[in-house]
Amino acid sequence: MLKIRKHTVFPEEFPEAWASDWGEDEFGLWMAFTYKGVRQAFRWCEPGTFLMGSPEDEAERREDELQHEVTLTKGFWIADTPVSRVLWHMVMGMNPGRFQGEINPIDKVSWEDAQKFIAKMNGLKAELKLCLPTEAQWEYACRAGTDTSFFCGDQIDSNLVNCNGSYPYDGDRKIGNMPGVIGVKDLPCNDWGLYQMHGNVWEWCQDWYGQYSLNSVTDPQGPSSGTGRVLRGGSWYQRDRYCRSAFRLHNVPTKSYYNFGFRLARNR
Description:
The chain has 3 helices and 13 strands, in the order ββββββααβαββββββ. The chain has helices at residues 85-92, 111-124, 135-143, and strands at residues 21-25, 28-35, 38-45, 48-52, 68-72, 76-79, 130-131, 202-208, 217-218, 229-232, 249-251, 260-262, 265-266.
């Protein structure tokens, strides 16, 4: 018997406007579209309030992780996996990535590359209303109701996260690592049904990078301008601490690396 995660706010557009299939399971509501035989599922994240950033006593934290209260007044859909190589290929007709394998995440894409992909998808079917998640949406979804360093607690291992385990987090043992990316569903999902929010590839967010507010904020969108866009989640190449829920990276929107990918969300 499935243990259903009950929802309190039902999405207004659920799901006839764009989804080819939909349902509810132990992780909550989901819906999906299929494009040229490639299926991409999304998970519903309800409105809520959480502590974004890290507490001062979190191991190996950085100064730009100032913990503050964030309220998201609207629920949102976020893809259950990073964009795969096969979906990218079907939409864009080419693959810039370094790593082969259809079920691997696309890599070596810039923020601007991600925007081109999104624009092309929305041009094919406007009802999709695809976008990148905001930084606040990304961390809220990653944490899935937790307040620990990772969604799975304060330590990780290679059965949970694909990262460079040669540099143990907070004095833990070395965990080993893969020599590159792995399939987008090769490791367990978090409690909201989202895969690989930690490790594998960095994920671009919509926001410009900037310092957090000292006060509580509602529906933050990040600074209005900047020099770098936010990336989250760590990667197969990075050490454990970079994969923490609160860790922030940023880079110029035109830059692409062999461990940069992205995950889709939806505008409402």
